[in-house]
Write the structure tokens for this entry.
Amino acid sequence: NRKISAFTAGSAESKLAVYLLGLPQNADGTVMLRSSLSDLADMLNMGRASLYRAFDALSMNGILVREGKKIILLDRNALRNIF
């Protein structure tokens, strides 16, 4: 269901938000990407450039911080409100 939701979410930010919210979160608010960004872009049916722009937009809005495959979710409520 998460893949279907991510695929039909609309904007790149929405697709990424649905995907990230479905990942297991550590106690410190981090999630780990299970695949490469190229594979993630393919899974979410978008180009890599769109995925990078989505990460940048969410980062600039203070919603997350990306450190390679480690994503720190700073504001889960804002992430939920994207879609």
Remarks:
- The chain is about 50% helix and 15% strand.
- The two ends are 15 Å apart (CA to CA).
